[in-house]
Structure formats: C-alpha cells, structure tokens
Amino acid sequence: MPKKKLGLEDLGGFVYSTNDDFDGNEQNETQETLAPQDQYLEAHFSNKGRGGKTVTIIKGFEGSNEDLVVLGKKLKKKCGVGGSAKDGEIIIQGDYREKVMEILKKDGYNVKRVGG
C-alpha cells in the first residue's frame, strides 16, 4: 500500500519562518463581528464527503471565531442536534435548513437558501 502524502493542512497549522522578526501571532488577528443585520448568510444542504449523512451548512459568517462558536452552539441547541463551528462555517447534523433559517431571521440575520 503506498504511503499517503501529507498536505500543508495535515501539518496542524505549524508555521516556520526564517524571518527573525516573525512572532507567529500575525495570523491570530481578531476580526470584528458584524451586526446581525449586516451579515449575509447562506444555508446549504450537503451530504457529499460525509458517508451519505446529510448536514446543513451555514456559510458567510463574518466575525470572530468565538462569536461563530456561540452562534453554532445556539443553533445546535435549538435544533436538538450535534454539529460543529469552524473555518467560518456552522455545520448542523441533519437537514434543518428551514428551522435554522427561521431562527437566524428572528435574530436579525439576512439568510438565503442555497441549493436544492
């Protein structure tokens, strides 16, 4: 069996620099979270790359990772399912697009249904 080649994402975010002035904290800049009425989110439905399991993906969140996690936790709790929030996306297990869109609209977010 051939050995799997590693990509940059498989290195776990390790950063090496030959620059003596590099402190490594330049990537961790905090992004200011926009107000809900200024956010334009997209509600996607997907089952690709997940072993046939269906998920609802919320894309387009602009803000800090902490605020993304808080919003994801709220959506997961209201839907009563699991999921995750990372890389600017909220993943909710199952097809809960309508319910998630309703919750987000009540909170003042602009949400658009994308895909089938």
TrEMBL record:
InterPro entries attached to this UniProt entry: DENR/SUI1_TIF, SUI1, SUI1_arc_bac, SUI1_dom_sf
Keywords, sorted A to Z: Initiation factor, Protein biosynthesis, Translation regulation
CDD domains: YciH_like
Pfam families: SUI1
Organism: Salegentibacter maritimus
Residue stretches making up the SUI1 domain: 48-108
PANTHER family, per the entry: DENSITY-REGULATED PROTEIN (PTHR12789:SF0), DENSITY-REGULATED PROTEIN HOMOLOG (PTHR12789)
Protein name: Translation initiation factor
Gene3D superfamilies reported for this sequence: SUI1-like domain
Keyword Protein biosynthesis: yes
Source taxon at top rank: Bacteria
Molecular functions per Gene Ontology: translation initiation factor activity
Family the entry assigns: Belongs to the SUI1 family.
